[in-house]
Amino acid sequence: MKDFIYLFRGGEADPENPDTAPSTEELLLWDQWMAPLLAEDRVMGGDPLVPTGRVIRGKNSVISDGPFTEGKEMVGGYFLFKAHDLKEAVALSKNCPILQTADGTVEIREVHQL
Amino acid sequence: MARLSPAELQEDMARWMTWTEALAQNGNLEDGQPLLAEGRVVGPTFERLKDGPYPDAGEIVSGYLMIRAAHLDHATELAKACPILHYETGSVEIREIIKLPNPSNA
Amino acid sequence: MNEHFLRHESGRLVVRLTRFLGTHHLPLIEDVVQDTLLKAWEVWRFRGIPSNPSAWLLQVARNKALDALRRLKREQPLSSEHLERHATEECERDVSEYNEQQLLLADDVLRMMFVCCHPSLPQESQIALILKYLCGFSVQEIARAFLTTETNIEKRLYRARQIFRKQHIPFEVPIQHALLERFSQVLLAIYLLFNEGYKSNQPNEVIRQELMHEALRLGVLLAEQHQTRQPEVFALLALMCFQAARTHARLTETGALCLLPDQDRRLWNSPLIEIGKTYLNKAATGSHLSRYHLEAGISWEHTRASTYKETNWYKILQYYDALEAIAPSPTASLNRLIALSEVEGPHAALEAFNHLPRQDALSTHHLYFSIRAYLFSEAGERKNALLAWEQALKKAPSEAERLLIQHKINSLI
Question: Is the pLDDT of residue C238 over 80?
Answer without folding.
Answer: yes
